[in-house]
Amino acid sequence: MSQALIELYRHQLWANLRLLDHAATLDPKLLEATATGTFGQVDATLKHIIANEEGYLAALGSPVTEKLLFHMHEFPSFPELRKRAQACGEKLIELAMAVQPEDTLSGTFQGNPYTMPRVVPLMQAINHGTEHRAHVITILSQQGIPPLALDAWTFWEQGMGR
Question: Which of 10, 41, 3 shows the shortest CA–CA distance to 135?
């Protein structure tokens, strides 16, 4: 597949880890903050980002954990969330490197059969992560925390882009 998709996943992994590392340093009360128009509390949103990556991988037939975060009621520790984010990010990069435009994914969702290009859930994972990382940045900035740069320019400037 396109090197661009692979680089998007490299950026996604970097941005997820950077945001988790940043959030781990915050006052725990800030993790309970939320704002209108966002997913919910900061901690719930961080868990949601990684839980969905685990879900996309499971749907693609490449689960990285036995118990998905979806099924955990409490917020895991930051080291646990980071470990899961790392594993998901690496697996998504691996899948992005292997997927071909003609590859399809078939299954059943809510009782309805589907067939779609395998790249669709890969694309959705990028969109989903970007949207919810922005939610966390918005919530934190409304709490007086300076915005964390997670954009492609910063990724490149920090030597992460190839």
Answer: 41
The domain containing residue 130 runs over which residues? Answer: 3-25+33-154
Q: Is 97:118 a contact under the CB 8 Å cutoff?
A: no
Q: pTM higher than 0.90, yes or no?
A: yes
CA distances from 144 to 20, 33, 78, 148, 150 (A): 18, 11, 22, 12, 18
The answer to whether the CB of 159 falls within 8 A of the CB of 65 is no
Instruction: Residue 73: give its domain's CATH number.
Output: 1.20.120.450
Measured from the Cβ of residue 106, the count of other Cβ atoms closer than 10 Å reads 8
What confidence tens digit (pLDDT) does each residue in 121-133 have?
A: 999 999 999 999 9
77: which residues sit within 8 A by CB, 6+ positions away? none
